[in-house]
Write a structure and sequence with these properties.
four-stranded antiparallel β-sheet; Arc Repressor Mutant, subunit A; Rossmann fold; five-stranded parallel β-sheet
Length: 234
Amino acid sequence: MKGEVIMRRNTIFLMEKNVEYIKEFCRFFENDYDILYSSDGEKAMEIYAENNTDIHLIILDSNLCEKKRCDILEELRSFCDVPVIMLMENEEPEPQIVAYRMGADECVSSYVSFPLLKMKIEAILKRVYGTDNSIQEGILELDLDKRTLKVDNEYIDITIKEFELLSFFMRNKHAIQSRDQIITAVWGINYEGSDRVVDSLVKKLRLKLKDASNYIHTAYGMGYYFELPIKEPA
């Protein structure tokens, strides 16, 4: 069964072996979220690589083909911090402890009702992304729904890659991001070109940010990070 996107707002990626569960999940949630899904563990990672910048939350269920649940979780956590809800086959504490240690944000029963699951999804999305879908830092305002950028209240034309790069920086303020981390976030884990593409994109983005160009800092020998400049005392 191939992944499919039903266009709405936030995107949920459901990794679930049970095809009937996927159908029921889509019927219940399709009016509220974009839904991306896979019933195959290997294909799930390929689908994620192709859509990583658009996914807001992952719901991960029991063993998918040759991959075990925690193998997939461990692989995801090696390069992304998208929130993950684990659907557990039983309520024994040990598997849940393992899942939390490996980076799960929430563990719930595989038999959880969809209304309750929806409440948990909404709580996590609100906690991680805020009540609205925009980010404001200094004179920058990034609308994640409309995919628009304002600099000092002026709309600026911006490419998809520039938007994704700026969004990644602003979501991870203060943290130095290596070129490899930026490539994974913006181009996906299957990108095979030169890492200098990052420097080129940063240069183009800085030009468009105008007076906010100094929000993106170079950490020489390490990468880049986003931080508002320190104001000099009056």
